[in-house]
Give the backbone structure.
Amino acid sequence: MTQLLIRGGRVVDPAGKLDALRDVRVRDRRIAEIGEHLTARDDEELFDAGGAVVAPGFIDMHVHLRYPGYPEKETIDTGTRAAVRGGFSSVACMPNTNPALDTPDAIELLNAEAATRAHCRVYAIAAMTRGRRGRELADFAALARAGAVAFSDDGDTVADAAVAHAAAVRARDVPAPFIGHCEEPALKAALGNDGIVEDAAVARDLLIAASTKKAWHIAHLSTATALALLRFARTCGVCATCEVTPHHLTFSAGTTGLGASEAVNPPLRRDADVAALRAGVRDGTIDVFACDHAPHTAAEKAADGTDAAPGYSGLEVAVGAYAAAVPDLPLSRFVELLSVNPARILRLPPPSLTPGSVADITMFADRSWIVRPQDFASLGKFTPFAGRALPRKILATVVDGRLAYHASRETA
Ligand code: DOR
């Protein structure tokens, strides 16, 4: 077991209410000590943070690791290598796999694969309905016992409101939240990328959350109206949260210059939506940054017309892209959106650097770098951020006391 001394970092720990230059000692997978000018011990590896920010480990609660079923798009190995390169010590992965993660056996298989191959913590999000077909409810209590931290048919909305309502009633006593992929399918078929497709689904989900009291999280919220609906629902006491992606915070439709490959669900929206999302991050309406890492093969992304696979590889650009989109966000808020808040929503141990905490740590600096998808660890090399300069760079990621990624060594 390596022991670690991180020297000369700016420790930003919202839970510990700390923002100060400190050294951090990690021993036996836990934070052992925080102090000024700690002396290295013989068995310790030294990490010179050189003024970089040292924060509790980031969590991305919305990634697609494609296990099982799609090893040509991503594997647990490559997806979690991408995660630690992106500063994430934990990810929660979506169940639109083959087969879907809709039984305790499927969750256990994923957990076993992660135990041997993953470079970071992997939490399973189980399907809401069997086979994600939107009809038969999953066994929520059994899935939660197997380790599922949330339920979602992500990639698809549960089309039938009665099924979604029945699901919420059945899952009411299971603390793990529902995560809604909000695109109303009939409206999507009729209207394509119109924002009403999302707004109608968000309104419905919030009404079901209000009536059933089920904890509800809106995935990749992308419109100004959906954000306003969420604000209103909260004033009525609805327990609902939401996340926003790097791409919806950055691009409006047609501005990427990527043609058909711009495809992503939900689609890129209008300038006014991008501005509203940024405002929602600043005013606290948006709880979480989550990248919806959706790797596809180059051929799948290059397909013509409406056939291009939807989604972008996000883990390795996310932190830089958030910083570019909301450069004025205070660092403690930035860290909350990436660690404290996703942990609270998924009922994970509260991320902190106070002594005794599990040693999951993310280190980053405000240093400009250029996105080179060919260098990604992810098998999915497609990103609308390719070639862009981003202002914040991940320097190292510590997972369970182990240096899982070190930028200047590329140990991951
Ligand atoms: O663009 C997307 N791609 N959105 C989703 O919700 C699913 C994802 C995928 O699995 O490829």
Q: What stands out?
A: Residues 196-212 form the longest helix (17 residues). Residues 64, 96, 154-155, 181, 264-265, 292, 294, 310-311 surround DOR (CB under 6 Å). Residues 57-346 form a domain with the TIM Barrel fold (CATH 3.20.20.140).
